[in-house]
Every structure is written in C-alpha cells, then in structure tokens.
Amino acid sequence: MSLKTDYLKILKNNQRNSGGRFFTLPSSSYYPHQWFWDSCFHSIIYASFGQFQKAEDELKSLLAKQWENGMIPHMIYLNDARFDEDWGTNQMTSSITQPPMIAYAMEKICKRNKKFVKDMFEQLEKYYDWLYDARSEDYLLSIVHPWESGLDDFVSWDSVLCLENPDKKTLADKKRYLLAEYVKTGHDSRRFMKRNLFNVKCLVFNSIYILNLRSMVTLAKVLGKNSEQKYQNRLDKTIIAYKRFFDKKTGVYTTFDSNGFVKNNNNFSVFFPLVAGVLTEEEAKGLVTKMKTHDFWTKYPIPTVAKTDKSFEADRYWRGTVWININWFLCKALRKYGFFEVADEIKKKSLELVKTGFYEYFNPITGEGHGPDDFSWSGLVFDM
Ligand code: GLC
Description:
single chain, 384 residues, mainly alpha, two-stranded antiparallel ribbon, 12 strands, 46% helix, globular, binds alpha-D-glucopyranose
C-alpha cells in the first residue's frame, strides 16, 4: 500500500459529523474535539487532494461556532464531550483563539469555488477585525495564553512565565492559572493585556497573521469587496511594525512582551520572517545559511529548538521535536524565496519521518515518532 493510501485511511477514521457539522479530529486516538488551526491544515490537505467539499465543510464547521464578537475559538467540543478546562463559558467551545490560518485556507478553496468563499466572507472579516480590535497594539497582535500560539509548551514562554526549565506539570499549572485569570476578566482581552500576565507579541503568530492578511487582500480583491483597501493598509502597517521583532543585539527576529525580548530565541521561530515574506533576498539567504548549520540541520530538520541550546530536548513536546506543520510553513516559504533545494530536502526528510507513522511530532536526531500516530495535520507532507 502506498503512503498516501495509508494516510487517507487515517484521515477517514478521524472524520466526524456532529450536529450537521463535518470536521476532522487531529487524532481519533488522542484529540477528541475540533481544533482551529488543525482544521485549517486539514482543509488545505483536502484541497490539495482535490476533495473540495470536505475542504469547505471543515472551515464551515469552524465558522458555525464563531463567537458573536467575531472570535473563532481554538477548540470546539464534540456534543457529548467533557470539558477539560473551565473556559468560563457555557458554549461548547474554548474561549481563546489560535494562529489565524483560515484566510489562507479559504484562498485555496476560492480558486475552485468563489461562491463558497463569498458566502463566508463576512464572517472571515468579522474574525480578522476582532483580532485587530481586541488584540493589536501598534499593529502587532498579542496572544493572551500559550495555547493561542499553537506551540503549547514552547521554550520561549519560560522567561515570560518566570520559569526556568519547567517540567510538564509546572507548565500545566501555570497555563491553568493564566486561563482562570483571563476568564475572570470576562474574556476582555484589553483588560487582561493591561495586567501583563501574558501579553506576548509572538513572532510565529504574527508571521502567520501577515501571511493571512495577504490572503484577505487577495480574497477581497477577487470577490470585488471594498474592504480590499482596509486589509491592504493593515497589511502594510503590520509589515512596518514587524521590524520591532528584530533584536539588534542578537541579530535575529524575536518574540517579546512588555519586559522586552524573550530569553530563548535560539529556536525555529527565527525562521518565521521567511513565512511572513518580509525579508530582502539577502536577509533570506542569511537565514537559510543559519538553517543549514549544525544547530538546525539535524538528521531530520527542523528541530523546534537549536540542538546546542541548553533547553533542547530531543523528545519533548515543542522543546526540540520536529513538527510537520512547521516544516510545511518553512518549505512553502523557502520555495517562495527560490530556495528549492533546501525545501526539497525538508520535504524528503519529512516524508521519511511519516513513513514510520503519521505521528504528532518526531525526534530530530533519531526520527522516532511521538504522540498519536494517526495525527491528521502530519499529512501536510503531501502539500510540501
Ligand atoms: C496540541 C498542539 C496544538 C494543536 C492541538 C491539537 O495542543 O500544541 O497546536 O492544535 O494539540 O492538535
């Protein structure tokens, strides 16, 4: 059987219909709900397989649970599911968001079915306008919880949370505490941001935001919407503001909060300006040279943390392991900048990884898979 046939079986097994909504679980063995950026990736995968109906349904089911204020929650619970956390809401959703990949996913569909995107566009605008109204400070967006980054236990949060080499439990307790404090504000992002408990300008989140603002401009244009100019202005201003991520001291773009740049920037996020597409050819070349050094060019690239960094852990969740969605982002970006060979190598190595199973994440040195082996977004290898 081919790799793709194996994967299609997994994907099928992860599909659910609930209350008239169709979506795909990240993994039926481990993640029993719908997640926001996962579904965007699933939609991209379906579209790349030519399964456009599923690509549309996956996004439609996200928008069906959009909040009144425009927010799209990062988790939507299955009907009979138990709530793991107290989200401070009686809706069947969480109360925070995730990297805003939905416009990019919609753009893929738009090439095939303009009408669908046209019907959804008002809701899309409502989401991106909520992000801007609730979260932007001088055009860069804040995240209010580590879970919003999609990079749950990432090393960059350590210094923000005043922790040093935290274990899993310490991190989990801290995340629960932050959520409770956010809920106490009645999910009022601005009020919460003022408290500076976790008000982070995440480089990865903002890079993905820029990528998606570009899609919003394209979509508005293709659909003949007069909001095209609004998104174009926002995009231009955000690209200018993005320069604030550049840390002159270390010479790399870095996540920051009100206390300054995070301590740990020796990780994959430094490559995300490629994803934002804001670099000159020369700057991009510099990053690719860095990517190909011993630190990041492991047997199976790209590790989430540099191999020689003291916080690197080859098997730990977002603290050194390889993730296929991150490789997908970088692969796409490298191709855009014309680094086809490097992109092809990442693709080749990613394919080698999933041949052992469609795991959630992998050891960058041995290639050993971790987490569930029926992880839906690992199918992004087919779209590299
Ligand atoms: C983990 C990941 C997050 C993802 C979720 C569902 O929490 O860190 O990015 O959305 O699992 O797959």
